[in-house]
Amino acid sequence: MNGADSLCDTLLANNVDVCFANPGTSEMHFVASLDKRPEMRCVLGLFEGVVTGAADGYARMADKPAATLLHLGPGMANGLANMHNARRAQTPMVNIVGDHASYHLNYDAPLTSDIESLARPMSDWVRRIQSADDVSPAAAAAISAAQTEPGAVTTLILPADAAWTNTTATTRRAVVPAPTEVDSLALRTVADALRNGRKTVIMLGGKALRSKALEAASRIAVKTGARLLAQQANSRIERGAGRVKIDRLPFNVDLAIKTLEGTEQLVLIGARMPAAFFAYPGKPGSPVPQACARIDLTQPGDDLAQALDALAEAVGADRSVTPVLCERHANELPSGALTATAVIQAIGALSPENAIVCDESVSSGRDSFRHTFGSAPHDFLAITGGAIGIGIPLATGAAVACPHRKVILMQADGSGMYTLQGLWTQAREQLDVVTVIFANQRYAILHGELKLVGAGEPGRNASRMLDLDTPTLDWVSLAKGAGVEAASADTAEGFADLLRSALSRKGPFLIEARI
Predict the structure, then answer these.
(1) H helices within 101-210, ranges in order?
(2) In what order do the strands lie in the sheet with 433-439?
(3) The pTM is what?
(4) Beta strands 378-382; 237-239: pairing state
């Protein structure tokens, strides 16, 4: 058994049985080991951003990490943007980055780079394997770190000679610490604050946005009069009819300020302190009122569901208190011109039970929650780190994790072009994904940002940097070239007909919504 075999065995022994990959020469011994283990599902991505984004989507739905296989520093660098998104989502991920044989590094071959320095900003944990005997201990440590609450992106560097050298080391099991219970002092502090009569917002993130935890949170809000809100960007929310009605903090800084206006206390449960995405002249860096008190109920590593149950008990919000749930809305379909709102209304009306909705619609989907509160129960996955190009890979990974659930992707056209290679992976794996392209032929968000920062109206040069026309992107042809069936619509009725058809069958399908 060589080091590569040891790595495969360690992954499988710790229930990591999916590998999203884009390998090269230095990883060939690992590829050969994977080839001997059919229990490991290997999924090829034609670009490393697809690989890391798919691993993110997979882990969000599977609640366990996938492995990625990346080729040296430059290959990993191609995947860094979606590693960043995964880190902000607190996604468990085990990245395996091949490197030159240790003795070959002195030659400074063309692909030599400082992998550790590249990996650290987008990883929570980085380790270089020292020898074939070190492979299994290092891999077990990576898996342990990835699965420690609330989840972490780990990067394991595998030199080629560690992969091909024989070893007699035993296969290690990862030791994953149990989530911690909420601190009793923090619990008393929050319970007291919820009784003091001040205007309070309870902001949730992470696994506090799963349905059972949300029910406890809603009972607390009903009992105490606090307002419930999700942080702006979240890895996964269980929402829809029969589930707790919760809105999210708006992206737009002015709307976020208005949403939190008058808030005297902000209780954070698995959520970060809100901040504007960027600095804007004359606007605050945080939408939270300056006089607002910040109160943290939980710390990283805490069991958020347990913390909410404990808080509910502390404030007397037992199960006799009824949580606020969404009612199923009528299946009203839009008609007439196709707009972003019409697209979202149709998705909300036609989405099947237990769908997974992935969102990288950017500006087109800012108001999507309003039209989907009463949709059939679904999981909602969004871009978390602001690095565009995650939508198609995210949906790809979610579909691998949940092959019996329909995945619907709301995708902006500009950001979709970053990782459209993921469509080919969907076709090869025959993944059940319906991709809806909001085709407005522009980076619409940047038109808004140009005005918001006070830079004026776009002229010729600015327009050529913000618009996607001349030539116009042909998403139907792009999808078909990747092996995905596709069609376009420019009316609300035509879009609804295409969506209904796509949802009625298995396999990937793309709809270009010309809005």
Answers:
(1) 115-119, 135-147, 160-164, 184-193
(2) 237-239, 378-382, 355-360, 407-412, 433-439, 509-514, 485-489
(3) 0.95
(4) antiparallel
Whose structure tokens read 């949940």?
A: 402
Please count the CA atoms within 13 angstroms of the CA of 447 that sit on its side-chain side: 16
CB 286 within 8 A of CB 273: yes
d(CA 88, CA 94): 15
Intervals of CATH 3.40.50.1220 along the chain: 184-314
Of the candidates 434, 402, 427, 412, the residue with the CA atom closest to the CA atom of residue 501: 434
Span 313-326, average pLDDT: 97
- 340-514: which CATH number, 3.30.360.10, 3.40.630.10, 3.40.50.970, 3.40.50.1820? 3.40.50.970
For the stretch 280-288, contacts whose Cβ atoms lie closer than 8 Å and that sit 24 or more positions apart, written own/partner, are 280/253, 280/452, 280/453, 280/454, 281/453, 281/454, 282/454, 283/253, 283/254, 283/257, 284/253, 284/257, 287/249, 287/253, 287/256, 287/257, 287/259, 287/260, 288/260, 288/263
Distance of alpha carbon 441 from alpha carbon 434, whole angstroms? 20
Structure token pair of residue 21: 């990959």
What average pLDDT score do residues 439-446 get?
Answer: 82
The CATH class, in words, for 3-164 is alpha beta
Q: Is the pLDDT of residue 383 over 90?
A: yes
| Range 184-314 has CATH code 3.30.2310.20 | no
Q: Which two tokens stand for residue 39?
A: 């229990």
